[in-house]
Structures are given as C-alpha cells and as structure tokens.
Amino acid sequence: MTPSxxxxxxxxxxxxxILPEIVLSAFGIVxxxxxxxxxxxxxxxxxxxxxxxxxxxxxxxxxxxxxxPPGTAFWDMVRVDAFSIFFHIVVTTVTAVVILxxxxxxxxxxxxxxEYYALVLFGAVGMCLMSSAVExxxxxxxxxxxxxxxxxxxGYRRRVAISSESSVKYFLLGSFATAFFLYGVALMFGATGxxxxxxxxxxxxxxxxxxxxxxxxxxxxxxxxxxxxxxxxHIWTPDVYEGAPAPIVGFMSTAPKAAVFAVxxxxxxxxxxxxxxxxxxxxxxLSMTLGNxxxxxxxxxxxxxxxSSIAHAGYLLVAFAALPSxxxxxxxxxxxxxxxxxxxxxxxxxxxxxxxxxxxxxxxYAGLGRRSPILAATLTLFxxxxxxxxxxxxxxxxxxxxxxxxxxxxxxxxxxxVLNSAVGAYYYLRVIVMMYMREPREETPVxxxxxxxxxxxxxxxFATLYLGLLPGxxxxxxxxxxxxxx
Amino acid sequence: MQPVATTFFFYLLSGLAVLGGILVITRKxxxxxxxxxxxxLLSLAGLYLMLYAPxxxxxxxxxxxxxxxxxxxxVIMLVNLERSAKEEQFNKQxxxxxxxxxxxxxxxxxxxxxxxxxxxxxxxxxxxxxNTQEVAILLYGNYMFAFEIASLLLxxxxxxxxxxxxxRI
Lengths: 486, 169
Hints:
By secondary structure, chain A is mostly helical. Chain A has helices spanning 3-6, 12-16, 19-34, 40-67, 82-109, 114-132, 136-154, 161-192, 197-206, 211-227, 236-243, 246-252, 255-270, 276-296, 301-321, 324-353, 368-371, 373-387, 393-407, 411-437, 451-469, 472-483, and strands at 71-73, 78-80. In chain A, helix 5 (82-109) packs antiparallel against helix 13 (255-270). Chain A is globular and about 70 Å long. The two termini of chain A are 28 Å apart. In chain B, helix 1 runs antiparallel to helix 2 (30-50) and helix 2 (30-50) runs antiparallel to helix 3 (54-78). Chain B has two domains: 1-80, Four Helix Bundle (Hemerythrin (Met), subunit A); 130-169. Chain B has helices at residues 6-26, 30-50, 54-78, 81-86, 94-114, 131-140, 144-165. At the A-B interface, helix 1, helix 6, helix 7, helix 8 and helix 10 of A face helix 6 and helix 7 of B.
C-alpha cells in the first residue's frame, strides 16, 4: 500500500456499482427522519408507500447496473457482474413484495411502522452488499447489517411473548454463529495472507493447500450454514419463525438466505475452497431429511414452513455439491424460485392470521377453499410449487438441481433428495386437503383482500408461474453469471 | 530491535491471563469477577505488545478494559447483588463441563505437537515500526468502504436498541 493509491478517489462508475445500496439506505434514512414529523394515525400508510418507492427504485437501480460494464469498485471491495445483479434483483423484489404485504399487516396488528420499514430497507442494503462483496471483511459487515435488522424485526410484535422469545433466541444463536464465521475469516487470513476472495483463490490454487485453510472453510461454513438454516445448525428455525411477524418470516426465509447462498457460492467456488464436497454432501442430506421429517408432525403452519425451509436449504445445497458448470446456475435458479413461492406463502399467512396472529394452526385453514377461494387458490399454487409440481417454478428448480447432481455422479445424494421430495409432498398436501375437503370451523368471512396484498400475491404468483412455464431466460442468465465465477 | 526475555514474559503474561480467567468464574462476588476480568484483558494487551501490535494493545485497553468493563460494572450495580451471592455458583453439569474443557485442551496439545502442517511454515512478517500508521492507511485507503459501511451497521444497532428498550414507540 503506497500513499499514491490514496490520492485516487473513487470514480463515478464505482458509485453506480453500489447504487441499489445507496438508494435503499437513502430511503431508509428518509423514513427515519419523517417518522416523528407525520401524524401517528396516517404514518403507517405514508411511510409504507415511501418504503415501497424505495424498494422499486432499488429494483430499477439493479436493472440500470446491467447497462454498465461489470467491474470492481472501492479498491476491489465490491464486484458487480451478472452474478451479483441477479441476487440484487431477487433481494430487492422480495423487499418490495414484503413491504406490500406489510401495509395491511401493520394496521391489523397495530404496530408502529417507522422503524419497521426502515429496518426492512437497511436489512436489504446488507443483503445486496453481501451478494456483491468480494472481500471477507466487507462480507462480514454486510452479514451483520442484514442479521441485526432481522433480529430486531423478529421481535417487532413486542406485546407478544413468543415474538420476544423468537428475537432473543435468534439474536443469541445468530451472534454465536457469526463468531464462527469471523473466526473462519481470521484463520483464512492466517492461511493465505489475504481476505480478498480472488487472492485467496490464487493462493490456494498456486501451491499445496495448508491444513489451516480447511479449518477456516469449515468454520465459515458453520456460520453461513446457520444463517441459511441448514442442518445441523437449524434448531433455531421453528421457534424463530413461529414468533416473528408473518411478513418478516417471508422476508427472512428468502432474501437473507439468497444473499448468504451468494456468499457461499463465491467462497466455495471462486476461492476454490478445499474439501468442500463431502462437507456439503453430509449437510445437504441431513437438512433434507431432518427438515422433511420435522415438518410431518407440525400443526402450526409457520412451524411447518420453517421445517420446509430447512428441507429446501438442503435441496439447494445439493447443487453446491455438483459440478460448478451446472451446479451454480441450478442453485441460482432455485434461490429465485424459492424466494417467489415462499414469500407468497407468507403473504397469504399474514393476511389470514388476522389480529394478534390468532389463526396460524392447520385447523384454522379448514374450509378456506369455500370461505375465500382466491386466498386458497394462491396458497395452493405456492404449496404445489414447494412440492415441485410441473408448471410451477419449484418443479424446474428441483429438476435442475437433481440433474446437476446426476451429472456429477452424486447418485446417492439424488436418491435421498427425491425420496425426501416424496415425503415433503405429504405435509404440503395436508394443508391443501385441509383447505378444500374439510368443513370450515367458523363461518365468519375472511377479510377481503386489500390492494397491497393483492399486488404482493400477484407478483409472487406471476413469478412462480413464469419460472415454471418459461424458465429458459432466467436459467440462461444464471448460466452466463455462473461462468464469471470460475 | 531485539526483544528481551521473550519466553519469560510470554509465560508470565499467559499465566496471568489464565489466572484471571479462573478467578472470573470462581469468585462469588460479581464485582470481584469483573476486576479479575480486567487482569485477563490487560495481560492480553501485554501479549499484543510483544507481537509488535501497539494499536491492538491500545484498543484492547481503551475498549475492553475501559469501555466494556464500565458497562459490565454498571449492569452488575443494577442487578441484585445479595441474591446472586446466595445462588449456587456451579450447576450440576460442572463435571461434564470440566471433562469437555480437558478434552479440548488435550485436542489442542495433540494438534500442536502432531499437526505442524496446520501452521504456515514461515513466520508472519512483523512490522516493527509505524504499526498504527499502517492500520490507519489501510483503514482510510483500501478498506475505506468497509469502514464507512460500518456506520450503517451502528445505525441499525442503535435503532434496534431503541425499538427493543422503549416502552412506547
């Protein structure tokens, strides 16, 4: 580091490479500043609208990034290419859908909106930054921004005991997991003398891999595995998802996971991490099996989907064990498809739960098909997609993952995955059977679908069907992005 | 610059650090525990100085032995000291805990004696001069972006503390 490099200030293009993050932070700060100024009764709608505009502007900013030449910014801390833009768009779109879902939810639950929307936007900054950071120090800071926002959002229903429980559990275990990640980063620096992913890759490729690098990768994998709820680091998931506000569960089960998977892809493939195969094999098999078996006995739909999200983390990790050429695009496609269907599921749940989140057991969903045909139909679409039925995004997601695994001769893992999909179909179908073939327990009509929720359902439903009917374009984009990682 | 009696000071400081750690968990009075923790933190600062890292040593003293210890003491003053003094010091799992700690210690020794490959062959180059300046140049040069973005992390943490702690928002 010579003093002369200090004199080169960042160029204009470098600011474009963090444009979505700048836009999201600016809108978050505007919301914080406006919150004390506007009338309490109308603040929820107004701040929500500003947050929505912010997330839409961030989507536009990510789109704009595709027009600019890919490259690094801020002394190789950030790299924006097709790979990071893919995850930027997933994260910002999920953010927009979650904000649309929250409009009505905040009113019904009588929650204060200001900090809520600001934290959602700040969390999205962390997630966007995670997917474009190519420096372990920056990845750590971005991971913490995203994690701390979600810890607080998990406990946002402060009058409810299980919400606080959810927040405290998530915070304590999450901090512990972050410590593992940080320890791994420190050891990786010790083994290779750098925290830049590209330089780590160079060092590991050049000579014999020091044993210390294996330890470092294992520790980093523990930290990141916790964040994506992969077994055996999954114990927190059902409790946290049960207590957290429903739209936030939709948020934290999709957007941060997508970002952490982006980090994992970069760390494992771009840094050519040693000894990754059997590690991922074991974690993927465990996650699929434990997640699906755990979900079989759940009566609370949020807990059921929590176990389902563990299982889906497992399916996704199958792609990580495959060859990079087919595994990376499959993993990217899966993240997008999973984000679309899961955020849609939780949009339905957050509407149906009503004040105080009273209706969250499977029994409550009895007869929903008659009481609210539209809600039942959309939830059915998302659940069918989670099973992996054709014409939905979930089908192609699983198809690409398993075919990538077969190409890499991972027959055992594929068999475990397919068997688990069959087990998984049981509990998703249980919800659908409950909705259409049981007599409703109460005849009170479900509250009509408000505009915001309708838009959220339309976007996630459209995305699920689009990925199921015309997967080619997204997959092609993912392929071209994956080529940049190797 | 040739270091003097490195081995002696290393064992002295490490011994003090371990002694402080044992005192932290064995004292009944939490204030005594906190004071013992200062001993550990200061010995660690001494170890950092031996590694020619005056900046880390300074941060260790100012942040940990200074700021965080004051916070600890505040919290200790706020909780009921008399009740905690009467409570049982160790729960029933202390045998399992000791066994796990011993096993970990044995593992460390085995790794150290048997796994020389775990550690890089060459010793890290220790810059003897202007260590703090080097840190500053990196922080405001290559790592400027990470340094700036950390302010967003702090902002989120502050908002979180307010949301969690305030009675009505």
